[in-house]
Amino acid sequence: MRRLTALLAGLIFGMGLYLSGMTNPAKVMGFLDLAGEWDPSLAWVMGGALMVSGVLFYFARRRNVSLLGAPMQMPTQSRIDKRLVLGSLLFGMGWAIAGLCPGPAIALVLTGQWQVLVFVLAIWWAWEYSKGLNRAGGVDSPAALQSLACDNGLATLSNACRSAATPQIACTSAAPHINAAPIR
User: TM spans, by residue (predicted)?
Assistant: First the structure.
């Protein structure tokens, strides 16, 4: 029953994204173009979504289990930290460059457009990378930098990315070496 409900919720969500125009990169770019011919219609979509989710979260916080009997898993972190800010900036840049955010991109996967497939693969890579960061102890830990350079198949950081502020990382057969302190 839970899988059927998840499928139904996903179909409704995808249909809403499609009908609202959120799966149309040109419409999204028009919304993000504040200096040009701004299209505010997606602001109404987002405002409506915030109102509906606000009401639902109000009631969800008062429950211990969902309507289907699963335990409620509400966010416990309320602090704004460096990872949240950096993740939000990356999300916004990706949205602005591609004209898509993850939900609409996943809704468009079946169209077979190679740009959408590349975008979804990039999301998947970022998700896997962030899981590696969590296992390594955070964004700035030496282990996280090793994960960036070695676990993802990069032999060295490119010369364009190297500076006095960034560590130089080189991977050997088994162990990566960090020649400088982590970025702070």
Answer: 41-60, 80-100, 106-127
